[in-house]
Structure formats: C-alpha cells, structure tokens
Structure of 4-alpha-glucanotransferase:
Amino acid sequence: MTAPRSAEPPDDELTRLAVLHGVATSYSPSPGRTVAASAAAVVAALAALDVDASTPEATRAALTAREGHLAQRLLPPTVVCWNDDGPGSRDTDVPGGHDTGDIGDTGDLDREAGARYRGTQGRDTGASDRGTGVQEADVSSTARRPDKGSPGRETSLAAVLSGLPPGTRLRVETEQGETRSTVDRDLPPGVHRLTATAPDGRTGEAHLIVAPPRLPTPSGRTYGLLVQLYSLLSHRSWGMGDLGDLAELSAWAGRSLGAGFVQVNPLHAGVPGAPTDPSPYRPSSRRFPDPVHLRVEDVPEFAYVTDDADRERLRALLERAERLRAAVLGKGALIDRDAVWELKREALEPVLRVPLGPGRRAAYADFLAREGQALEDHATWCALAEVHGSDWSRWPEGLRDPRSAETARARAALMDRVDFHSRLAWLTDAQLAAAQRTARESGMPIGIVHDLAVGVHPGGADAWAQQDHFAAGMSVGAPPDAFNARGQDWGLPPWRPDRLAGSGYAPFRRLLRALFHYAGALRIDHVMGLFRLWWVPQGRPPTEGTYVRYDAEAMLAILVLEAARAGSVVIGEDLGTVEPGVREALDRRGVLGTSVLWFERDWEGDGRPLPPERWRADCLATATTHDLPSTAARLTGEHVELRHRLGLLTRPLEQERAEAAADTGEWLALLAALGLLRGTGGGHCAADEEAEIQAVHRFLLRTPARMIGLWLPDTVGDRRPQNLPGTWDQYPNWRLPVADAEGRPLTLEDLAASPRLHALTDVLRAGVRGEETGGAGGAGEEDRARAGGGDSRSGA
C-alpha cells in the first residue's frame, strides 16, 4: 500500500492532473516570489472535484482518464462567443480562463480567426468580419487544434471550432427558440445550445454563451453615497435601517444633494435564528433578499388588519420597536438584528393573513412563476429551519436532500410556512424595486448600487438547495501574505467550476438576474473570485490551501450578458493583491474597478501618492470603505489607537503611530501642493479636520474616475469603522449606527439637517458638474507642476 500524499510539493504526474482540473500547484504572494502548494492541498482540492489522487497509482489512473476524455470529446461543456469582431476590437490574454479546470489564457474569436469561419473553414471567401460563421458540414481539413500549451483557449469559440474534425456538422438552438446551422456573430445574445456531430458518429453538446463585447461606459461623471443600510436609522426604523429608509435617503440624495447613486451593503437573506452572524457577507442566500429590511408599515396589507387582537398586538410591537430604536439612538445600545427580526416576524404574521386583492394576488403569482424552483427551495429551507435549526447539515438525514421524498412530505406538511416565506421574499423584492424606482425618479442616473457577497453560509439555504454545485469539505479564504502571515478562512463553501460549466453557469445566471431586477448597479465583492479562489480544506489552516481556477471568460460573459440586459453598471472590488491581467480583463469588458485614495501610490516607482491625473478613469474612487478606518479616524490617527486598545498591533505602538502619521502626512502634503488644502493647523481641531476631509474629496474630483463614492459617516466625522477585520467579539462589527464625531448616533433626519454634510456634498455636486477642481477631473498644468506629477499613465 502506497503512503498517502504529504506536505511535500506535488510530483510531475500530480501537477499534470492538477493543471487539467484547474488546481494550482503554486502561487505568487508577491512579485518575484513563488510558493509551492503542498501535495496534500492539491489532493484535497481534487477530491472536492471528485478526482482521486490519494496515491500515485490513483493519480496515474485519474490522469489517464482525464486525458482520454479530453482527447475524445468534441465540445467542452460551455463555449464562449463575444460579439466584438468589429473595428477597434482587441485580443487579450485573460488569466484563469480554462475548460472546467484547464489553466491557461482564454482569448476571443478575433478577426483573423473569424475570417476562417465563413463557409468552408480555411477557405478565404472574402466575407466581411461581421457575420462570419461555420456552415453545417463545412469544417475543413485546414482546421488545427489549439496550442496544447494554452488549454484555456479551448472554451473560446475560435479554439473550439478550430479543434473540430473536418466535416463536423454544427447546429445551434437559441434560447429564443430558433434552430440555426451556422455559428456566427449574428447569433442573438443569450445562452444557447450548440451541438456538433463528427463524421465518425461522435456527438457533443455545449452551452454557447453569446455576450456583448462590453458593458456601456456610464455616461458623464457622478458621485454617490456609500452606506451600510442597517446603520442608517430614521424616526420610523425598527432599531436598524430598512428599505423605507433606503428609499427616503435616495429621494433626498437625488433631489437635494445631486447624488447619482446610493451604494449599500449586501442585502442577501441572512441565516435566521438567534444569535445570528451579523455580517452581511456571510448570508444564507445570495439569490433572495433579507426580509429583516422590510418596512412593515409599507406592506399594503398592514392597513387592512381588522382583527382586534391582531391590531392590539401590532400596537404593542410598534411600541417595542420604538423602544428598540430609542435604545440605539439614545442609550448607546448596539444594533440587534435578532431583536429587530423577532419583532418584524411577529408583526408580519397577522399582516400576511390578510387576503390579497385580485391584483396583488396576480402579482404574487407572477413572482412565484418567475422565481420557480429556486424560491420553493428557499422557502422550504426557511420553513424547515424553523423546526430543525438553521444548519441543514444537522437535520434528519432525509431532509438534507432538497429532492428527497422526505423533503417533499415535509414541504407539504409545512405549506403554510413555505407560503409565508415565499410571501416575505415577494414583499422584500417589491420594496427593493420601489427603492430603485424612487432613486431614478429623484434624478439619479444609476440609483441603488447593490453588493454581491463572495459566497454563502455553509449551513444556509443556497448551500442546501445547490449542494451539487458546491465543493464539499472546502472553504474560501486567502493565502498568507505580507499583511496576514496565517492566511484567512472565510467559512464560505466555493462553487465547483466543473459543475458550473456543466450547467451553463445556471446558478450564476439566475443569481445575477435576480439582483439586476432591482439594481441600478452591482458591486462584486472580491471580483478576483471570477478568476480563481483560495480553497481551504475544512479543519486545516488557511496556509494549507491552494488556488482553484474558474473559467473567467465564461463568468465574465454571463456577467456582461445579464448586466447588459438589465442596463446596469458593474463595479468590481479589486483591492489588494491582484494577479496580472485581471484588471485588464475586467476593463476590457466594461467592469469598473475600485480605487481607494490611501492605497493609490506609485508602487512601480517611488511609492509616493499617485497624482490625480494618473488614476484610472473606469473606476469607483473613494476615500474609504466599510472595512477601513473612516477618513476622520485616519487623519487623526485614531485607527491606530483603536487597534492598540484591542491588542491587534503586531509592532510597537510608537512605530505604528509614526508610520501612520507619515503616510497621512504625504497625502496632506500632496493636497496642499495641489492647492486643495490651505490654512489648516494639522488636523487638531474640528475645522481643520473638516477642511482636510473636503480636500480629500476635492482630490478625488481631480482624478478622471467616472464614479466618486462618499462614505456617508465621513460627512459627519464618524470615527468608528463598521467592520474591523481580524476581530470577532472584540469589536461590534456590523452593529454600529452612523454617528457624529463625538459618537452620538444620528438619524436620517439629523443627517438631512447637518451643515457639515451639506458643505461636503456641495463640493462633490459642484465637482461632478465641472464647476470646481478642473472640470472633468484633470488637474491643471500649474497643479501638476506644484505636485511634481509625472506622466499620465494609468495607475493600478
């Protein structure tokens, strides 16, 4: 018996097998440094893909089987076609494109290749680039297979067609119901069915994704507010911000402040049952929204509760909600999502017993039909969780399978509760759509920017309903780097790239379609996850993980397809270490990046702050985010003091203070050199601090960034971060209301009356209109001379 794999690096055969399944055998935590993954990590990742590599013999057998499968098949499970074969189109190498596991570069069907796909392949027909295609039974002997050194190209249409045997017949069944015998750029956007029949009788089927070449660039410049919705209370909130508050904020910001968007945290459905994880980035379901955000009084049936006992119960609940709100706003209490949900759930029980009118019932029926099986699964999980707890892996065995007979019987027995949770999903969806309508009616060109979390809770609804698409025994995280020597484990099960490809990315398509239904734009957290994710075996430290590749071309094609259909903007959160080529690939497809002022330095040069004219244009530029110190805290150094009080510093306090002060000082010096900061006393009084925060945002206006994000707590000098990475119970993450510089919680009504807020938003409104700071964002020659600005190359 051969010993199982160890912590040693993988051997040649294991490496070859890993490459064919998209499992990395090494990674680069920093330029010029390569770290080998352990054989054990590679074996564990392969096992999660149902590939046995536990011994050299098993590896050899799996390698032979995989190579044989790839040699015999005609088509990969999914093929990608971009409709960009026109003037100005460019080919690009995209990291991470692969055929359900092959690592390599994924290219497009470029014009040179496209010219071979008209009539008989390999014969120049003189056809124009637009409208080239492969006719049925016309793949010629001049076709050549893709370079085996770049297996990732095998999912692009160009590579797939060039690899087919001569005489192969093709047929496309479009999602619009047409049947075609050509594969060309006249195919409508969508996910179609491609069938190939070879002369030797072999057949193959694939999902054919046809996507627009890129998303349209947002017209003009705009600024908007960034806020964690739960933190924004009004005088009508039940202890945390809700969708009524979001609509009110959007109407006010659009009409009075000239804002173009409001970005919120993920509003995905949380895991029910106290105590819940308050993080919005570890939801039960990303597909459906969380009813904890409902404004109960805005549900139409609320006004028609007629039973005396129910009405008395609602009055009592409203009084409890008022006390809950008062405790947060006036007594220093933390936001308690569990308490809020308990009140709302109790209130919604009698509200949802009110019969729907004919029009409302028809709308509900439409929602049920639109969401279909996914909604039934979600509502079933919610109903079962009320009985068996919120971790499906601990349920009775028969209920762990959403398609089992036991689950069907339980669903029938709990049908009232299934309908209750389906109604909640409908009501929440409707209030989200209403908030977006309100935002657009207020004059916002974008409206609500929603946030897509990286993954889901392993015990939640999505992990239960879609378990065939998740990698069992794996968790998403991050490898060790200069900032975290131990790496990170986020506790989120990753999607299996092979199962995604085999389904034509159906779960991803449905997820995006649901989110774009009520989103003017979508921010994708850790957008690098479209390319690869760090898989950590459960029970092992993050250092013992490895990267697994996804077909980035297919993921991007689905993203662009669904966003284009909805007319929505997409913003990728691409902060931190990003592998070469990712930002270029995203930019090529019209996905905006994210640039945070304090991180924008000339990292390839002297490391100094990057002058505004060298920033990239296609991005959302901000001063901070929910995971970072507020601008006031950074300017005063209070973020260092906070980490010191919590015992989080890894170096002496004085060293941390000095480094933070030097970092801030460099930026303030640049602001002064650009004429954006005059006459402050170093940030030691409120007036100086306010002037410096305004200068920071005037700087953002000097950049060419298309979108400027204003962190709402920055408008009133809030010191506290909403989330302090690296903490659990040491800090009240995700539970703080927006507050002023003294820590006094503020309501939406308080914000609307704040002179400090209006002074800052006036700067931004004038700036995006070209009334200040150099019109469209470019710094003047005099400013550049003062700042010592270099060339206008785009900053990373």
About this structure: The radius of gyration is 27 Å. Residues 84-211 form one domain.
